[in-house]
């Protein structure tokens, strides 16, 4: 094989030196080299296998001998165990063509589930019913009463150790030297004096006097409308007179303190 590879390499170099004039010759030479390399592999003949054994086909009897006509049947069973709360049963009847039956079971919520079914060539039809009402009682587990164990408290001997007596330490109070600082002195200022001003005197004005007018008299009207229209101006004039009196008497607190006491104003019936 090494010699074939050396021949291939020499031919390739020869073709490369001749400027690769003809690529077809290179392909032909490569094919020849591949055939030469393949011829170097050892040839193993195809192994001869043993002939396939010929077993005779089994002969089964005809199936017609096992085809029996459907036969009617009926069964019924039930289980009732109060300790384990098991209550269920099943009952079924067949005439060979139609199967009918019913089965029941007690559910955990106290209801009873009853299923009535029918099966024939058209399929399976079931009717489910529930009997009773669902109840959810509170679960109260019961535990056996075990006697409470009584353990005697362990008695340990009390150790007798003498109380240690420690001498009381005596420490002399530390003596700190007093700092020699001069006591500060603060200047004293005289109490300020303020000048006394005389109390101002305000002139006193005489109280104004207002003329008194006689009360007007109006003829009595026979209608209510006339009385209302004539009485309105009188009330308005009285209000104006009261406002004039209140405005023309401004007296300040200082004038009241300096002047003589003034008598209360007299109520005039004429102004009203």
Describe the structure.
The chain has 272 residues and is α+β, with helices and mostly antiparallel strands. A five-stranded antiparallel β-sheet has the order 1-2-3-4-5, with no helix packed on it. β3 and β4 form a beta hairpin. α1 runs antiparallel to α2. The longest helix has 24 residues. The chain is extended and about 160 Å long. The termini are far apart. The C terminus is likely disordered.
Rg from Cα = 71 Å
Label the overall shape. extended
Oligomer designation: single chain
Distance between the termini: 157 Å
Structural category is alpha+beta
Q: What is the string of SSEs from the N terminus onward?
A: HHEEEEEHH
Major sheet, described briefly?
Answer: 5 strands, antiparallel
What is the percent of helical residues? 10-25%
Low-pLDDT parts are: 226-232, 244-265, 267-272
Q: Overall mean pLDDT score?
A: 75
| Strand tally | 5
Name the beta content range. 15-25%
What's the tally of helices? 4
């Amino acid at each position: 094989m090494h010699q074939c590879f050396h021949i291939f390499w020499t031919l390739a170099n020869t073709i490369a030196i001749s400027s690769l004039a003809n690529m077809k010759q290179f392909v032909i030479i490569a094919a020849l080299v591949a055939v030469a390399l393949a011829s170097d592999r050892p040839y193993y003949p195809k192994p001869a296998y043993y002939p396939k054994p010929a077993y005779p086909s089994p002969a089964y009897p005809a199936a017609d001998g096992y085809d029996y006509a459907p036969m009617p049947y009926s069964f019924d069973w039930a289980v009732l165990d109060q300790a384990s709360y098991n209550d269920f049963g099943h009952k079924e009847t067949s005439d060979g063509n139609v199967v009918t039956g019913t089965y029941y079971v007690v559910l955990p919520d106290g209801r009873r589930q009853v299923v009535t079914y029918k099966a024939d060539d058209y399929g399976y039809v079931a009717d489910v019913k529930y009997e009773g009402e669902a109840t959810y009682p509170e679960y109260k587990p019961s535990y056996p009463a075990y006697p409470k164990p009584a353990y005697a408290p362990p008695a340990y001997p009390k150790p007798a150790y003498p109380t240690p007596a420690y001498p009381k330490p005596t420490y002399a109070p530390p003596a700190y030297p007093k700092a020699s600082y001069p006591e500060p002195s603060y200047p004293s200022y005289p109490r300020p004096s303020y000048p006394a001003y005389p109390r101002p005197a305000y002139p006193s004005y005489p109280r104004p006097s207002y003329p008194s007018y006689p009360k007007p008299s109006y003829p009595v009207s026979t209608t209510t409308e006339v009385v209302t229209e004539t009485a309105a101006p009188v009330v308005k004039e009285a209000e104006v007179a009261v406002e004039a009196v209140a405005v023309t008497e401004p007296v300040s607190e200082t004038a009241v303190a300096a002047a003589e006491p003034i008598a209360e104003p007299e109520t005039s019936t004429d102004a009203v």
